[in-house]
């Protein structure tokens, strides 16, 4: 039985993205296995009861909920104190994962839902984003001047919604939301979790993700993207700060 944690992931999946963000912040080393959802390896299906990514194989259990993986990583090490979040953060995450994600999917994949009104679904998603925009007025993060778990948990989904039609998204009256999203998209942590990996297959060399960083450089969301190779990441730690010094 494997002793080290194995993360089954898919680069563009927002759930997998937030799991990788938390693992990166925690500086916990995991073996990364990229999955193509249209061609799931047998070993993945044996691991993940739900057949969904992300899934984290631990020695004694499997976590197949992204939020559980985030919490697992941050309970090991939480240098940014992301878990130190007001109670309200949990309800923001629940709304994101529930009604917002549903409205997002109904908008993005509208042809799959012929019985639903795409415009109404987009409006439902937008109502939630207006609330986030109001919350972000005068602050860089959902709860103030430093990010919390909620920022990491929500941003990949807001990105996914924005990508449906970025021109439309940018034309909406939510400047604080756009600034929050753009800071995230321009950040090094985002660049690092979006590095590309070939889909895993049996017998491949192990690919490491999220471990200790050799240099002590601190990167902030205000800095431009700075890409690294997979080899570099394998030796890296938690220098990335999803935080902004004021
Ligand atoms: N509740 C799960 C949802 C994960 C999920 O739905 N992931 C999608 C990809 S973004 C997936 O694996 N879908 C299975 C498939 O497309 O076959 C979590 O938070 O991890």
Give your account of this protein's structure.
This protein has 246 residues and is of the alpha+beta class. It has 10 helices and 5 strands; from the N terminus they run E-H-E-H-E-E-H-H-H-H-H-H-H-E-H. The protein is 46% helix and 7% strand. Helix 1 packs parallel to helix 3 and helix 5 (118-136) packs across helix 8 (175-185). The chain is globular and about 50 Å long. The structure holds glutathione. Residues 10, 13, 15, 37, 51-54, 65-67 line the site of glutathione.
Put the structure in a nutshell.
With 246 residues, the protein is of the alpha+beta class. Helices cover 46% and strands 7% of the residues. It has ten helices and five strands.
Number of strands: 5
How would you state the average pLDDT, rounded?
88
Number of domains: 2
CATH class of the largest domain: Alpha Beta
Helix content range: 40-55%
| Order of strands across the main sheet | 4-3-1-2-5
Topology, element by element:
Layout: E1 6-9, H1 14-26, E2 30-34, H2 42-47, E3 55-57, E4 62-63, H3 66-76, H4 88-108, H5 118-136, H6 149-164, H7 166-171, H8 175-185, H9 188-193, E5 208-209, H10 230-234
Helix pairs in contact: 1-3, 1-6, 4-5, 4-6, 5-8
The protein binds glutathione.
Glutathione binds next to helix 3.
Defining key terms:
single chain; globular; binds glutathione; Glutaredoxin; 2 domains; alpha+beta
């Amino acid at each position: 039985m494997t002793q080290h944690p194995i993360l089954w992931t898919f680069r563009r999946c927002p759930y997998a993205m937030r799991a990788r963000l938390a693992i990166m912040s925690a500086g916990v080393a995991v073996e990364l296995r990229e999955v193509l959802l249209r061609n799931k390896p047998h070993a993945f299906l044996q691991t993940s009861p739900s057949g969904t990514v992300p899934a984290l194989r631990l020695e004694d259990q499997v976590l197949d909920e992204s939020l559980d993986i985030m919490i697992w990583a941050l309970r090991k090490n939480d240098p940014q104190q992301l878990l130190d979040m007001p109670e309200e953060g949990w309800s923001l995450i629940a709304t994101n994962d529930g009604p917002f994600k549903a409205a997002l999917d109904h908008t993005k994949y509208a042809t799959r839902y012929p019985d639903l009104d795409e415009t109404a679904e987009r409006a439902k998603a937008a109502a939630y984003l207006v609330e986030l925009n109001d919350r972000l007025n005068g602050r860089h993060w959902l709860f103030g001047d430093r990010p919390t778990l909620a920022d990491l948990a929500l941003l990949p989904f807001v990105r996914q919604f924005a990508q449906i039609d970025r021109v439309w998204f940018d034309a909406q009256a939510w400047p604080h939301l756009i600034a929050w999203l753009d800071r995230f998209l321009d950040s090094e942590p985002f660049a690092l979790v979006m590095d590309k990996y070939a889909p895993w297959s049996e017998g491949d060399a192990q690919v490491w993700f999220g471990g200790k960083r050799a240099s002590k450089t601190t990167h902030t969301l205000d800095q431009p993207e700075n890409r690294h190779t997979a080899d570099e990441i394998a030796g890296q730690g938690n220098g990335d700060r999803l935080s902004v010094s004021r």
